């Protein structure tokens, strides 16, 4: 299946509301079924983020899991995202590379992945969000964690104040709230001014991932 071009990827990013990070579900062995369900439910961007063994996946295992996710994303018209590694994003033909504050600088990652890949940045303070909103080469950013979360141990909550500040800043790049967001908390996140969210456990641990994604999609798309 031919990949999306740069214009199509950026159009899809602009329209994206629901971003899911999943591990490779190695123990459950159901990555393909899980991805199919989450995408059918309305996930717009699907990132492989596997730190379940306390360390990132080996490159070959990461590429194998990305192949599974990439096929599912292509079927559903969703964007495939890689976490941290520009070389893997390039090798996997990913649409998106997500970089944290301690990952590759955006300018360096851009040299590796080229112009068509969308680059995202994590931010945890108003200063970082403001930098990500203007730094050349950044296509979107995330603000969080809204609440402390076992998915990112050791990272203190930035709270909903950061969401409020980012919403008030008039940022023109797409930005997503992340961290501790579930069905019960989504209304607070939306009320704070976000209209895009990233979730992990709310879908990866759901009994019915398709229904969980559909629940978020319905509320985020109004
Ligand atoms: C979409 C999205 N937002 C934030 C993160 C977190 O990135 P980072 O701070 O680099 O932490 P790790 O995920 O690498 O542990 C993300 N991965 N994706
Ligand atoms: C991967 C990650 N990054 C964060 C950040 O604030 O940058 S919070 C987070 C984990 C979010 O997981 P859950 O939806 O299960 O709480
Ligand atoms: Mg990272």
UniProtKB/TrEMBL annotation:
EC number: 2.5.1.3
Biological or metabolic pathway of the protein: Cofactor biosynthesis; thiamine diphosphate biosynthesis; thiamine phosphate from 4-amino-2-methyl-5-diphosphomethylpyrimidine and 4-methyl-5-(2-phosphoethyl)-thiazole: step 1/1
Cofactor binding summary note: Binds 1 Mg(2+) ion per subunit.
Entry cofactors: Mg(2+)
UniProt-listed GO biological process terms: thiamine biosynthetic process; thiamine diphosphate biosynthetic process
Pfam families membership: TMP-TENI (PF02581)
Record has Metal-binding as a keyword: yes
Class of this enzyme: transferase
GO cellular component, one term: cytoplasm
Domain of life: Bacteria
Residues annotated as binding 2-[(2R,5Z)-2-carboxy-4-methylthiazol-5(2H)-ylidene]ethyl phosphate: 149-151, 180
GO molecular function, one term: thiamine-phosphate diphosphorylase activity
Residues covered by the Thiamine phosphate synthase/TenI domain: 18-203
UniProt: Mg(2+) binding residues: 84, 103
Keywords for this protein: Magnesium, Metal-binding, Thiamine biosynthesis, Transferase
Alphabetized InterPro entries for the sequence: Aldolase_TIM (IPR013785), ThiamineP_synth_sf (IPR036206), ThiamineP_synth_TenI (IPR022998), TMP_synthase (IPR034291)
Alphabetized NCBIfam families for the sequence: thiE
Known function: Condenses 4-methyl-5-(beta-hydroxyethyl)thiazole monophosphate (THZ-P) and 2-methyl-4-amino-5-hydroxymethyl pyrimidine pyrophosphate (HMP-PP) to form thiamine monophosphate (TMP).
Family to which this protein belongs: Belongs to the thiamine-phosphate synthase family.
Designated name of the protein: Thiamine-phosphate synthase
